[in-house]
Amino acid sequence: TASVRATAELRIIGIDGKDDRQVVRSAGARWLRPLRWSPDAASIVTLIERTNGMRQITLVSVADGSIRVLKSQPWLSVQDVAVSADGELLAYQLTAPTDARQFDLFIRPIGASPGPPVERRYSLTLGGQRGAKLTEDELVTTCTLLLNAGHEGTVNVVGNGVTALLTPPGQLQV
Questions:
Q1: Quick check: 32 and 48 in contact, CB under 8 A?
Q2: How far is the C-alpha of 29 from the C-alpha of 43, rounded, in Å?
Q3: Where are the beta strands (DSSP E) in 13-137?
Q4: What does the buried/exposed string (b/e) look like for 49-68 if buried means 16 or more CB atoms within 10 Å of the residue's CB?
Q5: CB-neighbour burial class of residue 81 (10 A; exposed 0-12, middle 13-18, buried 19+)
C-alpha cells in the first residue's frame, strides 16, 4: 500500500491583498485550522489533525513558523477559543452536541512557566433544578438583575474610589 503523505500549510496575507506569505508548512498533518490570533499578533492558535489521528491545539509563531503544542488528544474537537489580553492564558470549549446538558470550558496557561501547565476544567450543567422551575420572564428578570447588580457594584466602587482619592487636596500623595 502507498503511504499517505499529508502536509498542511498556514498562510497570511495583508488586508490590502498583498504580502501573501507562508507562516508554516506542517508535514504529517491532514489539516490545520487557524482559531485565534494572540493579542499581540505574534502567534496564531491553531488546531491540527495529524495523519495518525492525533489532534493538537498549537501556538504558531508568525515570525518564524515554529509550532508549540499546547494540548494533544485523539478526539480533540474545539468549538470556541480565546486568549487572555496578556497572552498568558488560553480558554477553549470542546464541541458539544446540540442537545447537550453540560458544557465544559478549559483554561490553561500558555506563557512560559516552570513545570508542566495545569489545566483547569469548568463545567456548566443545564437542568437538574430542584423545586419549582423559573418561567421565561423570571429567568430573564433574574439574569438582568445579576447583570445590573454586577455592573452597578463595579461602577460605584470605582467611581467612589476615584472620587475619594481626588476630592481631598493632596490625597494622592498619601
A1: yes
A2: 19
A3: 21-27, 29-37, 43-50, 55-61, 67-73, 78-83, 89-94, 102-109, 120-125
A4: bbeeebbbbbbbebeeeebe
A5: middle
Set of cell numbers at residue 31? 489539516
pLDDT single digits (tens) 25-67: 988 999 999 999 999 999 999 999 999 989 999 999 999 999 9
Beta-carbon contacts of 127 under 8 Å, excluding residues fewer than 6 positions away, are 101
Asked if 90 and 107 touch (Cβ cutoff 8 Å), the reply is yes
Q: Sort 167 into a burial class: Cβ within 10 Å, 0-12 / 13-18 / 19+.
A: exposed
| Helix (H) and strand (E) counts in the chain | 1, 10
For the question of whether the overall pTM of this predicted structure is more than 0.70, the answer is: no
Place of cell 470605582: 158
